[in-house]
C-alpha cells in the first residue's frame, strides 16, 4: 500500500490536451508536465470540469475525473488545461499540513525527513513478538500489541533511522482500543522515542491511559532505567494527542500538545546525558502493561501524523 499524497497548490500551470479524451479516461495527454510537484496531488480545470491529479509522467497526467460536483466529459485535443485553486483543494491543503485543522480525523499524513510520502515499509520492527502493524485505508498505521502482566516494561513498536541533526519530529496518535474496562490497574503507554541502536538505549515521551505524561529511559526494550520527568496528569485527550521530540545536535527535547500548534516543552537535556553518543533512531512504541490483564488481550494505537522539520 502506498502512502496517501498531500494536496498541493500549483501556481500558473497552463497547458493543453494533445489528443481527444473520453469522459472515462483517467490518464490524459498534455503538452507540458514541466515543474509539477512530485508526491503531491493538485487540481486542474478543463472546460468546466475539475480533475484531481494524482501523478504524472512526461506528457501525461493521471487524474480523478469530475471532482467537486463537476461532471466528467469528453474534451477535444487542443483544449486548455489550467492549474486551479479551489475551496475543497484549499481545505485539503490545510488538513494535510496543519495538525488538527478543522479537528480532522479522517486521513493519515505520514512524511519522511525529505517530505516524501511514507508508509509502514519505512519503519523497522523493534521487539515485534506477536505485535502487528496494519496500514489502514485512510493512510494511518495501527499498532497492536498483546497485553502483559509485568512489573517491568515490554516495549514493542516501530523505528526508523533519524535524519541528520538538527531535526524535530512531530507525531499525532489516537488510542483505538484497549482490552476490558478502563480502570486504575491498567497502565498501557504510547511512546514517541529516541533510540541509540549501538547500546539499545531508549528515551521516550509517553502517555498512560489516564493522561499521565512521563519521560522514560530504558536500557533496552525490557529494562527500565529511570524517569527524569515522572508521571504528571495533563489535561489531554487520549484519543487525539501530539508528541514532539527534537535533537539539535547538542540537546534533546520532549514536547506535547492537544492541538499540534501550541507546544509545552516538558523536559530537555544534553543528548549525551543518558545516551553514550546520541540517538540515531526515532520511533513509536507500545508498552501494553496491565497490573491485571483485562478481558481483551491486545492494546492498539493509531499513528495519524508523522512529519519532520
List keywords for this structure.
22 strands, 46% strand, 2 domains, Thrombin, subunit H, 1 helix, seven-stranded mixed β-sheet, 309 residues, Jelly Rolls, mainly beta
Describe this structure in words.
With 309 residues, the chain is mainly β. The protein folds into two domains: 90 residues, Thrombin, subunit H (Beta Barrel); 204 residues, Jelly Rolls (Sandwich). 4% of the residues lie in helices and 46% in strands. It is built from one helix and 22 strands. The strands form three sheets. Strands 8, 10, 11, 13, 18, 19, 20 and 22 form an eight-stranded mixed sheet that branches. Strands 1, 2, 3, 4, 5, 6 and 7 form a seven-stranded mixed sheet that branches. A hairpin with a 3-residue loop joins β18 and β19. It is elongated and about 70 Å long.
Number of helices: 1
Spans of at least 5 consecutive residues whose pLDDT stays below 50 are: 178-186
Here the CATH topology of the largest domain equals: Jelly Rolls
- How many beta-strand elements? 22
Topology as a string of helices (H) and strands (E): EEEEEEEHEEEEEEEEEEEEEEE
The total number of structural domains is 2
What is the CATH architecture term of the largest domain? Sandwich
- Radius of gyration (CA) equals 23 Å
Let me know the average pLDDT.
84
The backbone outline, from C-alpha atoms, is: elongated
CATH class of the largest domain: Mainly Beta
Beta-strand fraction estimate? over 45%
Structural class: mainly beta
